[in-house]
Amino acid sequence: MKRSLDIELQKIVRGINDQAGLNEYIKHSHKYKYYSSFLDYFSSLGKVVSINVATLYKESGIERSYCYHLMNGMKIPGRDKIIRLCITAGLNLNETQIALEAGKVPLLSATDNRDIVIAYAVEKSFNVQNTNTLLASLNQSILE
After folding, report:
1. What secondary structure does DSSP assign to the chain, as a single string?
2. Which residue has better confidence, 43 or 7?
3. Residue 1 has what pLDDT?
4. Mind listing the pLDDT tens digit for each residue in 69-128?
5. Residue 93: is it exposed, middle or buried by C-beta count within 10 angstroms (0-12/13-18/19+)?
6. 6 pLDDT more than 70
7. Taking Cα atoms as reference points, which of 132, 79, 84, 87 lies closest to residue 107?
8. pTM for this one?
9. What residues have CB less than 8 Å from 56, skipping those under 6 apart?
């Protein structure tokens, strides 16, 4: 599946004709970055804005104070926490991949069995509990 960021990268690279053009793009690349952090991306989504933090921590299974710290930018979430928050917010697979990328953690991979199960659960709109049940039933580690 092609993601919008992959397509954007292809457009950028095709539009650069020589090393001078590449240097010029790099010089101004800060203008083209999509999201500086997971929180920057996550909090920009309409789906997320409508959810209060209490709902996020209750439904994601993330400890209350830790969730508040994540949503206030005081803590940086790891991969599983990002996935838990994305599932809770009802993000689709593409949105979840962008969130992982913005969080500077590995994307879900088509070559990793656990990631395939998580991607399936995201696409089928499973909640965190159902996702963990599915992971456990397939002998994969649950979302921490």
Report:
1. ---HHHHHHHHHHHT--SHHHHHHHHHTGGGT-S-SSHHHHHTTSHHHHTS-HHHHHHHH---HHHHHHHHTTSS---HHHHHHHHHHHT--HHHHHHHHHHTTSPPP-TT-HHHHHHHHHHHTT--HHHHHHHHHHTT-PPP-
2. 43
3. 38
4. 999 999 999 999 999 999 999 999 999 999 999 999 999 999 999 999 999 999 999 999
5. middle
6. no
7. 79
8. 0.77
9. 62, 67, 71, 85, 88, 89
Which tokens belong to 75? 């803590």
Residue 78 zone, left/alpha/beta (φ > 0; ψ -120 to 50; rest):
beta
- Name the nearest CA neighbour of 34 among 16, 9, 52, 66: 9
* Separation between Cα atoms, residue 17 and residue 126, nearest integer Å: 45
Tokens 């499973």 belong to 126
